[in-house]
Design brief:
This protein has about 260 residues and is an alpha/beta fold. It folds into two domains: about 100 residues, no CATH class; about 150 residues, Rossmann fold (3-Layer(aba) Sandwich). The chain is about 35% helix and about 20% strand. Strands 8-7-6-9-10-11 form a six-stranded parallel β-sheet, sandwiched between helices. The longest helix has 19 residues. The protein starts with a helix and ends in a 7-residue tail after the last helix. The model has no long low-confidence stretch (mean pLDDT about 90).
């Protein structure tokens, strides 16, 4: 039990997602007192315990049913012999789904990419900057973000892009933008956006269908052109428009509605 906070830290920073279970109140004879903690992972494994037996088994099952964005809840248990439990007391258990800090993958560490990384870190995103240009990352970048300098065709697959990730594509070349977006979009991340003009977007859509065989559903998930539609000119202004889209996507995934 002494390392439960280490498990919680690892889950919140790197994943995988888990459900934190805490005994919050007890009455009478119970297997564990208030404050007992347990982490339940998607594969059914646990760290810590709230007492074992039928009660813990039921808590684990309910934890495995919790969905992303589901509100925390408190379960009440009556540990009486007639319910198949011998302790005779009562206990309440708090359940909360813990997910890793949202990962934002920015392909392209140019002016817009670095402006966006700076903004997004202030909104709690975990930043990965990707660029294949030599010397593009300075020491400050390497301290603040995960920086990957490698050939673009190899990178998207190695990052294990998943349904909880956010992806922004803004490299120095149209061809790379389209190819990276196609590979990343195939994994259906929570958000993916491609920077570009109307002409570039039209070409991208054509290639997505003819060369990469993306379905209409996957293509329609891509925000093209990226960012909320505000008048922009400077890299910082463009990054602001993209940041607004990222915040909107994240909050909608948590059940929030846009304010009118």
């Amino acid at each position: 039990m002494s390392n439960i906070f280490q498990h919680l830290h690892e889950t919140s920073t790197r994943g995988p997602a888990a459900v934190l279970c805490i005994v919050v109140s007890t009455l009478g004879s119970v297997p564990r007192r208030a404050g007992a903690k347990m982490m339940v992972y998607a594969d059914g494994s646990i760290a810590g315990t709230i007492g074992g037996g039928a009660t813990e088994f039921e808590v684990i099952n309910r934890a495995l049913q919790m969905q992303p964005g589901e509100a925390p809840q408190v379960l009440s248990f009556d540990l009486k012999p007639e319910h198949g439990l011998a302790c005779g007391g009562q206990m309440q258990v708090y359940l909360e789904r813990i997910t890793p800090t949202d990962r934002l993958l920015i392909f392209g560490a140019g002016h817009i990419g670095k402006e966006l990384a700076s903004m997004a870190s202030g909104f709690g995103f975990r930043i990965t900057l990707v660029d294949d240009r030599e010397g593009i990352f300075n020491p400050d970048d390497q301290l603040r973000y995960q920086c990957i300098a490698d050939s673009y065709p190899h990178i998207p697959a190695s990052l294990n892009i998943g349904a909880d990730d956010y992806v922004v594509v803004a490299t120095y070349e149209h061809r790379l933008d389209i190819e990276i977006t196609a590979v990343a979009a195939a994994n259906a991340p929570r958000y993916i956006g491609l920077i570009g003009s109307k002409g570039k977007i039209a070409l991208a859509r054509k290639r997505f269908v003819e060369e990469f065989h993306l379905t209409d559903d996957l293509i329609n998930r891509i925000e093209m052109p990226i960012g909320v539609p505000i008048a922009t000119e400077t890299p910082r202004e463009i990054a602001l428009a993209i940041m607004a889209s990222l915040v909107d996507a994240r909050n909608r995934s948590r059940g929030l509605k846009p304010k009118k």
